[in-house]
Amino acid sequence: MLRATLKSLLARKLRLTLSTLAVVLSVMFISGSLVLTDTLGRTFDNLFANIYTYTDVQVSAKSQLQQQGGGNDASTPFPAATVDRVAKLDGVAKATGQVFLNGATPIGRNKKVVLNQTGQQFGANWTGEDDLVKLAEGGAPKADNEIVINRGLANKAGFKLGDSMDVITRDQERGTYKIVGIMQYAGGRDSMAGESAIFFTTEKAQEAMLGAEGVYNVIDVKAAAGVSDEKLRDTVKAELGDAFVVQTGKELSDEASKGIKNLLNYINYFLLGFGAVALLVGVFLILNTFSIIVAQRTQELALLRAMGAARGQVLRSVLLEAVIIGLVGSALGFLVGLGLGAAGARAFVGLADGAEVASLGFPISAVIASFAIGIGVTIVAALMPAVKASRVAPIAAMRESATPDRPLTKLTISGIVVTALAAGALSWGLAGAGGATLSLVFGGVLGVLIGVALLTPVISKPLVAALGMLFSWSIPGKLGRRNSARNPRRTAITAGAVMIGIAIVTAISTIFTSLSTAFADTLNKDLAADVIVLGQQTSEIPPVVTNAELDRITALPQAKTVAAITADAVEINGQQQFVFAYLDPAAGVSVLKLTTDQGRIDRLGPGEFMVDKKTAEDRKLKLGDTISVKFAKGPQKTLTLVGITGETAIGDGIVIDYADAKEGFAFPQPWQVFMAVKDGSSVAAAKDAVNDVLKDNPQVQAYTKAEYVKTNQQTFNVILVIVQVLLLIALAISVLGVINTLLLSVIERTRELGMLRAVGLRRRQTWLMVTTESVVITVFGTVLGLAVGVGLGAAIVTALKDVVGFGAVTLPWALMTVYFIASIVIGAVAGFIPSLRAVRLNVLGAIAYE
């Protein structure tokens, strides 16, 4: 039996290739995701190890506002005397006070911000060359208008020694500086990871980056000979106490790498989710492949039974074939995934100039997952056909066919039960089921897809007949329609693979289209501004409008009402969250169309705040209640609730007085400005006037209300494009399923096709018949996928209406039309290879085919 199985497998090389390719496509996404995250993880381990190679111990002060995850804030200044205290400690060879933090924004020759992919725009004081920093050209800055920049920034922005460059520092002041030096890092690196670095004189760095003279925010401590980094750390920590964070270079490297790895984990989960979809589609493909293979081998297996083979031997024969295909497909899938992971890692790291990809990893998890999934899925998919093969009676060897259609009753009942249970789980999850919410939602969606797939054979009969009518204007078209309907189970499995990919894309499209429409409707309804000023955040430092610019905007002749808003993270009763402040509460209430529910909302004083009705209910706040707020700059205040606004989709949350914000926010300048123009004034002219005011501020610009809405909607569009691109893998597998099914079907119907050719069916007509069958199956799967996707998307939108802020369900008609038209094209393309094989059949050889 073993020899017979291997000979049967090798004798049908096309069948072997198609079956193996199904496994490869199912496995490669999973292995590629695991290889990608492993390679990126080790890459960033190496990167941060290199960054902190020359750091023995680093000291920074804790902020009174505890930051999530770390507890320290690198922007917190401390007096220069602290450096002297550290320098006198035993075991310290040298202690250097440094100004080094994000927030020095370089302006290019085009008067725009010089962007980089890392979001890091460092400003520092020049302390001279050391093991890490080397001057490549020029010298040190000696005057307040002189700077040294890293080679990476110079190359990116096109600056050279002696040029002038504008820089916006953390104090939000824009200055013009002369480039007197260009530096590189050890090893001739232009940057560590694509960041920009600008070095000022110590006095200028303290003033512009920390806001005061004679202060630093970092101390670089070098250990004396024979003193370990850990011992030095403990000595410094004991001297400075709990107000400071003292870490070795290795600890800094591990901490930075850990933050990146947490992000990579989320990326991995995201990619594995799409891998799971591809895997599910692959199961349908493999199941269909083995079902057709067993049907084609009916006489062969029956002859084996007649020659004395037991049922168990036949069962093991088919399963052995599945194991071999799964093993080969898993190996190839892992190798393809390895290539995809390597390409993805290079593309990701390529965004950060200066970073280098670590050697490609072979994570054991990727190897195990590839072979476990590939072999496991193939065996599971082949199990039902194998059981069916073992039941073939020896007498079947004497018949032409031993695969009559079976009733669909059991399959239909199973589909109804699975769909009902899955819909219940989905509804329960969307209604909120504690910690199990996410599992119930994902499980419900998966169950609905499987349930509908089980019902597909029943659905296919009327729907395929209806769709086939479109192609029944010719004899080949009628034959193609009947061929697609002659085996409901096979058609259903093939169309089911197409259905899953289309359903998921349509559901996500429906969700994001509804969310985008609801967001636009909310802004149009609840925002009374005609011109909005905002910027693109290129680092952790927000783009702001200066107070002088705000005064000029307010004084414009087109301006009727101008509201400016700022925000910052604070700690309220021990929990971190964002709070807002209006520079003029009355203007904010007017522009955001806020209504009074209780108290007063048109004015605030120091120590006062207001909230919207929903926030008040969630926090169980009433007029006169107080909250304890700890600000970024340090002060802790008790604020009293003096007003509650009506329910609102924008402008919600806690709003404090601007005097308190100015004292406590890290960046109290306005983040956004909203302007309502006077009646009769041109909105376009008002926008141009505002942009003229902001011409020297490259961080922000003015938009009309329509442009503002469109800009905010782009986020949803970008996410949707990413999802569609990733799901193309699943759709590609489903298209392969159509090709696979038709090719095997053509092989199965070789004799039938020969008879049709013999009675006068021409080559062109044969091509049209097979292509029609392909198009009908693909369109059927697409139509079913669109219906299921719309249903799932509409259910999620309706269930989350009050939670997320959805409006009415909005269907992505344009995308759905594209999917439908594309299904016709894809069906025609998918039918090309099978139809090519069909038209090339030798008529006499086909009639004699067994």
UniProtKB/TrEMBL annotation:
The listed locations are: Cell membrane
Alphabetic keyword roster:
Cell membrane, Membrane, Transmembrane, Transmembrane helix
Is Cell membrane among this UniProt entry's keywords? yes
Broad class of where this protein is predominantly found = membrane
Give start and end of each MacB-like periplasmic core domain: 18-238, 491-692
Family, per entry: Belongs to the ABC-4 integral membrane protein family.
What is this protein identified as? Answer: FtsX-like permease family protein
Membrane-spanning residues: 266-293, 314-340, 360-387, 408-428, 440-471, 492-515, 718-746, 767-800, 812-833
Q: Is Iron tagged as a keyword?
A: no
For this protein, the record's Pfam families field holds:
FtsX, MacB_PCD
Please report the stretch or stretches of sequence annotated as the ABC3 transporter permease C-terminal domain.
Answer: 274-392, 725-842
As for membrane topology, the entry says: Multi-pass membrane protein
